[in-house]
Amino acid sequence: MSTVVERPAFSGKLHVLKGHDRIADDADQVAEMRQQLRDGDAFIVKNYVPRETIGKIRDYLAGVGRASLPNYQRLEQSCPNFHRLNRIDERSYVKGCFHQFAFFPWNQDFFDFFVMFEKIFHAQNTLNGYSKTKFLGRKADDNCIARVAFQFYPKGIGELNKHRDSTDEHQLALPIVVCSKKGKHFQEGGAFIERYDGEKYILDDYADEGDIIYYNSQIPHGVLRIDPDAKEDWLSFEGRWMALLAVNKLFDNPNVANSVDLDK
Fold first, then answer.
1. pTM of the predicted model as reported, rounded to 2 decimal places
2. Which structural domains are found in the chain, ordered by start?
């Protein structure tokens, strides 16, 4: 059984990278970045996904969210793509309030997300010490699956408790794709990682639409409430958007521990 291994909080070092290719292919770059992640650094890769594409994805997901019922699905082999509301759901290991749209490599989607984000998954696997293509096939690998999860945090109520993910075996390098711009799509709050002294660094203050952020998922992190004074309106789809490119355990996998909610 994997257990939570204490890792450093955010070191305060935020590296900005202009390109992505060396992360997966340059052994020296990989080794250096892996150690920096273990030390608590974070990275932003600028302008990876065109803003026009991000806008089309947001519009499409908002249409799906308005036109079909949200429905929880258990993470298991061959489960469908789905979307669900999380309103402090008791089934969640970490409490939060957001609308999630989940995609899996054995299903089809209009954007072909696992091709669009293939190099990011390759870099993630390489930084985590795996072969580039591990977890990306049509069948679960080691009882784990790759997943693209878009998350929308609505103004007024969208947030995610501070937490620490359970193991660095799959997610020493956890990538997120920034899909909204603070100051444009929302004004207050955002994704944060926490320093040793408890100070929170809001990553959305430094990133733009289409950027990728890599950080050590053992660092305490979460999402501060988005525009807390705004009126709740799920169907406006106004607020903060992101895509989480993760490797998740299947529901019956006993070998990977759960994430730990640090705000309970």
1. 0.91
2. 14-261 (2.60.120.620)
